[in-house]
Please model this.
Amino acid sequence: MKRFVWTSSPFYLIFSVLLAAGAVALFPYNQLFGIIEACCAAVSVVVFVLGRLRFKRYIDRTIAGVITNISEINTTYLERFKMPVVVSGKFGDIVWSNLRFKKQLCGGRNPVNDKISVYLGDKSIDEAADSEGFELDFDGRHYTVFCTSVDDGFICFFVDNTYYKDIAKKYSETRKSVAIIVFDNREEFTNDSEEESARVILALETKLLHFADENNALFKSLPSNRYMMIFDKIHLDKLIAEKFPILKEIRSITYNNRSATISVGIGLNCDTLIESESSARKALDMALGRGGDQVALMRDGEYEFIGGVSAGVERTSKVRTRVVSTSISRVISESDRIYIMGHRFSDLDSVGAAIGLQPVIQKGFRKYCRIVINKETSMAKPLIELADASGEMMFITPEEALRSVSSRTLLIVVDTHIPDYVESPELLQKGKRVVVIDHHRKMVNFIHDAIVFYHEPTASSASEMVSELLTYIGDNHVSKLQAEALLSGIMLDTKSFVVRTGVRTFEAAAFLRKKGADTVETKTLFASTLDIHKEKYKIVSEAEIINGCAVAETERVCDNIRLVCAQAADELLSVEGVNASFVIFRSDDETVNISSRSFGKLNVQLVMEALGGGGHQNMAAVQIKRETIEEVRGQLLTAINNIYTD
Model:
């Protein structure tokens, strides 16, 4: 067929004419060559004539085949179709089209001999025929194309739905979404003079009004230090692509070396404004739970986050702590036995918070209370050994706890709020009554069905939160051991009161010191063996500094590899020019881990979260299955670049 298309084309006829002209010109000089060229020209003309005849028969046969396959409708009827129609041969070359096809898709030109694939976008004719119709944008118009195969080729119908597509696009672009905004740290500024406080609030509201005006949004002030905006989707898509520059603009409002910050919750893709407002409130709660200064988007039940690179705002009020302590006391009183459980590979903060609670519940409420822990995998063995040496029965294995769970058993989860991270996910699943006490930035897959969810992302540690709770629940049974356990947890997560340390942190430390905590003895809980020190400094010595981040990796595996790498990450922060540290190591044949630390200039939680982990702004981690250390290193560097491109 392709041969007939070529030999019947005008170009082939021109070629034949040129051969004949050449023969005439050559004949006076060389009769033999002139005769030969004349013969070639004659043969060429014959081939052209035969090609035209055969191509015409092919076209007639194809059209006849098409007509036969659509119930003997003739070409006159096809011409009257109120849509573009085109017929191609089995090789994809166009053999016929109606007038609408010529006008709308060809600019009035006859497309015969064109390849039909030119008019099908990125699809071949076979793919088009196999589909149930597909969308096509051609020459500024929108079509739905339906192709079907017939005996000798294909027939395609182009349904012009530009009008309806434009309406759908306009509807999508003008779909409304509710955003709820809160001034994160208004309390900090209201403690200043009324004049300065009013100046800061006026500056913030002025920027928000200007922001709403730029993006054609409805703006309304709400009670309780909140604001509402209603956006069109087209403007929201632009803001999402730009990563909400309003966050940076609000941070430019400063007074006494403090910057204002806002948190924003937005409900997307909701059928009604009421549903969007409800989703916006949930998204805002998630943004605040992650430390504020960010935008949380709730889209089809899933969360997306933008921002969150600055430190959270410390809450100075203890009203919520008092209310939560009352709720926890009531729940404890209604339970027959209580289990306290931290996260896997428990550390001093997790174990310290649990030890702080256990005797108060056991002796103060006269309830059976035990700490569920796997001693073999814990990184707080010195503290566990100290507690065992005291003679108090505090600890129980997850297997023992599972055998005695009842409907009235209370499970208190400390230092984590993620179901998969707890010491025993089976115990969490079996327990119906759960209390959560945690300070890590909130993640999407948190424990949803807790009776009490006490979450303070601005607290330094779970031990600080427990210390505050004990002042309301009852501190009569807080001994020297409990005080030092809680103090060790605070010291661990604050790097000995260096990072994430606020007024309430020192108040908690003062309370524990009053209860007998000895700082020297507490410091001995951090002591490690000489072998651990050697392994730690091997890792540190092999680290590289990349854009202010210290990155180290090791293939060495030892019994205390998690503790070694955690300490190595801490040590790397003391290197000049390092804002964050990442230590990559393998804990078993299938799992690669990253232990990360920061002094606050870089939010390591965002980096770890991008890789599937989590934690806090200054301390986070992740476990990645079935990857090599080199692959994980590449993913880590990509995550850092993606988050901190600005």
